[in-house]
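Let us begin with a simple case.
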Amino acid sequence: KRKKGAPSIKLAYDPNSRGLFTESVRILCTDIDIMRPQGVTHTVIAMTSMSTGSGKTFLSSNIAAAMADAKKKVLIMDLDLRKRTVSDIFGLKHHVTGISNHLYDESLTLADILHEDIIPGVDIIPAGHIPPNPAALLGRQRVDNLIAALRRPYASVLPGGAPSHAV
């Protein structure tokens, strides 16, 4: 049940389901854990594709929900700065402060752009304002620094919707 004014979240993963899709995502998350090198507790998982509409956002959002369902703290970043698809899935497309603002304005801190427990266990950094040149903005060192800083508090960081050259 959503609180009044809470964002509308559009996910296919259902923690109460034993359906084919939900079980497939759970198996994928288990496989990701198995492939993680011994001693590594924090990972960055990037979905890339050269074509739009291939399911990067859909998959990363549902993987985040499944990992959180397994009691892991997950962060998903909307790096699709033009379409803001991850932000839309989590009902934050129209919140204006996000990753693009953080990359442009060095006075903004992580606390200014982070939305905690958007669903239990999943934090999100929305895309923010649409910049004139997203590729140039995502190429800044500040992206790498931010992702490196986020590895410690999260079991997984998912740069959702990112173009292949951004991660």
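The second case is a distinct protein. As before, the sequence precedes its structure tokens.
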Amino acid sequence: VVILQLYQAIKKDTSFSQVSALEINSKDYSTGHPTLSSDGQTMYFSSDMPGGQGGTDIYMSRKVDGHWSKAENLGPVINSPYNESFPMLWKDSLLYFSSEGHYGQGGLDVFYSSKNSDGSWQGAINMGYPFNSSYDDFGVAMNSEGTEGLLSSNRNSQNTQQDQIYSFKINDLRFT
């Protein structure tokens, strides 16, 4: 069993120092796949901590007085009884994540949710084909314009355990 944990460090020039584990870690469950708000004060991450919707869920924590607050589950609008992971926050307004539980095309599919003015999230929307496939699709990274990015997937692989990174363009969703 592998337990994932989150750490922080101070970057000065090209080196990192003062590496420390975050208070939300535990030896009893995993915390991983973090994404930060543009001001660095809000973190979204996945975890299988007790009290979630099931499997791994997406959580949020805020930095208060230099420490990360208790994790808050994003609830059933984002999380399902299965696994949600690999969150990626884009421009503080869209949350991309992968799910096995929301209706999809099979395996992990990439979904997105828009942030409401009150800070809550709208229902998860499947990115659809050809962004998603019947295989595992996850780990989105998007450019600042939201027109190009990278996606991890095990599609087009003779070995479904082998993940590859694909580039895409939103205007025509060509994968290369």
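DSSP finds no helices and 15 strands in the chain. Residues 26 and 88 are 22 Å apart (CA to CA).
Keep these points in mind for the review questions at the end of the chapter.
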